[in-house]
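Give me the fold.
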Amino acid sequence: MQAPERGKAWKALEVAFGRSLTRPLAEACRTGWQVSVSEPPAQLPDDAQSTVYFRFTLSGSLEGDVFLVIRHSDAMSLSLRDAPEYADGFGEEHYKALSSAVNRCTGDLQESLLEYGVASVRVEAAGMPELPVENSTGLSVHSEDPSRKASMMLIFDEKVIQSLKAASAKAFSYPAAESAGGNLDLVMDVALNVTLRFGQRRLSLREVLDLTSGSVVELDRQVDEPVELVLDGRVVARGEAVIIDGNYGLRITQVVQSVVS
């Protein structure tokens, strides 16, 4: 089977899942994990008895089911706080702790995908989906300790893939000024404050109070991920950070939503 084309919307969905899983996993585990997109797996797990499946149901213009796949061995490598750290195998406590963490990511995931038309996200336990490996992507779970790592997988159903194709084909660009009506000309010279966002991270009050000169705060973004241009809390473009006469600038590579919509 031919692998589906992985356009901008597909990549955005992958990144959104990775980011939304990072915080709840870091809170639920003894290790501060980061989740990022990795190479698609060569094959899918064929043993449902040693694998956990969660189904994320997306609704809106981007709709369908996305399955999160985690092997028992990888789940145990996460060192979940509410499960025995040293156990002979994956048990009910491991499943409950993992399920709780996964359920807490839906809010961040929905917020990340609003610009792609996702109106709601629901997650539930699921069985092994009968979907091809070509519909999957990998997620790498890693920490500051290179010896500690785990992996997960995402599998997209056909409805999601068709929605992603439509979203990638859609022109994420500003409409012509005429489409907004003649009144738009009256405000074209109004100055707007825009911000470059290299990344973000949630800190507990304790972590904020512990900040001192020399402290390092790790953001939720990889070095090669695009920088966001933010207007009034909304991401309107993405691109590459550049230096212009000693100042930061942005070389825009993608316009993601209309300001005048």
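Residues 171-180 have pLDDT under 50 and may be disordered.
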